[in-house]
Amino acid sequence: MNCKTTLDYRFSVAPMMGVTTSSARYMYRLISKEAILFTEMIASQALYRGNNDKLLFKQETESPVVLQVGGSDRELLKYSVDLANNKNYQGINLNVGCPSKKVSKGKMGACLMKESDLVRDCLSSMIQGTNMDVSVKCRIGVDEFESYEFFRDFIHNVAQSGCQLFFVHARKAYLKGLDPKKNRTIPILKYDYVHRVKKEFPHLKIFINGGLNTISDCIEQMKFVDGVMVGRAIQSNPFFLENVDNVFYGKKIQLANKEFIIKKYFDYVKSNIDQVSTYELLSPLLALCFGVPGAKKFKQQVNDLIRARDIATLENTYLKLIAA
Ligand SMILES: Cc1cc2nc3c(=O)[nH]c(=O)nc-3n(C[C@H](O)[C@H](O)[C@H](O)COP(=O)(O)O)c2cc1C
């Protein structure tokens, strides 16, 4: 079985609710031309009932972007694929990893790891009639189902759908007792499960996620899998992406000039200030000030400027920070 993919997933920016907004993706794309960007998860129900133009808003410059959806209703998921096609997304991904109570209640996310037949059937219906990449993002287990054999059988069964692209957060999820934030730190990372599954199913494309904090961590993982996916390290510093095109895609390019990128991003902020919330516009930059000397004071100053919508002073403040 050949793996049909249109995108090169050697490096992806993980889907993150409230983080990987269209504005953040605009910023990330200024830094890396090649990384594959994911949207936040959008429930397939919401896509069916809600304002699609708003929910699926994306700027052309962001591409390639994969739309992440949540759900387990085959018809609704198929509908989401059609929308993604129409709105010019380059791929669609099914979330089988989110452990939040609300998401589980809607029969979405990590609870579906216990229902591999259902996940297989959902993906089958998503794949039918589309040329777009259809992928899944899952965990390595859930609750008491934590053996390697459980994970392997899940992948094996789900792959019967024809889906060959698996993004794996290398932790199990606890559906009870841990909130989503703790579910990203407390369950132990088991990279070996992901490496083993790639060995057992070499025809599948396996991408590893979870706890990759440096470019070296990512390079190390490329010995075992087809690609890496990074979330929080990019949330806290978008300039993590500055080496990606060179290291992962072999593009001989000069390192991004941070000052140029900040200025370009503030041009974007200024032209969108009346349409997009100030928080969404500024949040890709907010975490940049964590960990610098005087971070608390700096954060306060930035928050005050955001509240006052004093974009010119904010821009200067960030340019000074970058220069320092
Ligand atoms: C704020 C936040 C929101 C997230 N939202 C989603 C989401 O919408 N869909 C999803 O599949 N994972 C979501 N995740 C999980 C990440 O995609 C990723 O699997 C996880 O953070 C582990 O990767 P990391 O250690 O590189 O951050 C979220 C993570 C964070 C920090």
Count of individual beta strands: 10
SSE string, helices as H and strands as E? EHEHHEHEHHEEHEEHEHEHHHHHH
Number of helices: 15
Mean pLDDT: 94
**Residue share in helices?**
40-55%
Tell me what the CATH architecture of the largest domain is. Alpha-Beta Barrel
Query: Compute the gyration radius: what is it?
Result: 20 Å
- Say what oligomer this is: single chain
- Molecules bound to protein: flavin mononucleotide
Q: Write down the CATH topology of the largest domain.
A: TIM Barrel
Query: How does the major sheet shape up?
Result: 8 strands, parallel, barrel
Distance between the termini: 52 Å
CATH superfamily membership of the largest domain = Aldolase class I
Mass-distribution shape: globular
Range of strand content: 5-15%
- Number of separate domains: 2
- The order of strands across the largest sheet is 1-2-3-4-5-7-9-10
Which class of secondary structure composition applies to the elements?
alpha/beta
Keywords:
alpha/beta; binds flavin mononucleotide; 324 residues; 2 domains; 15 helices; two-stranded parallel sheet; 10 strands; 43% helix; TIM Barrel; 8-stranded parallel barrel
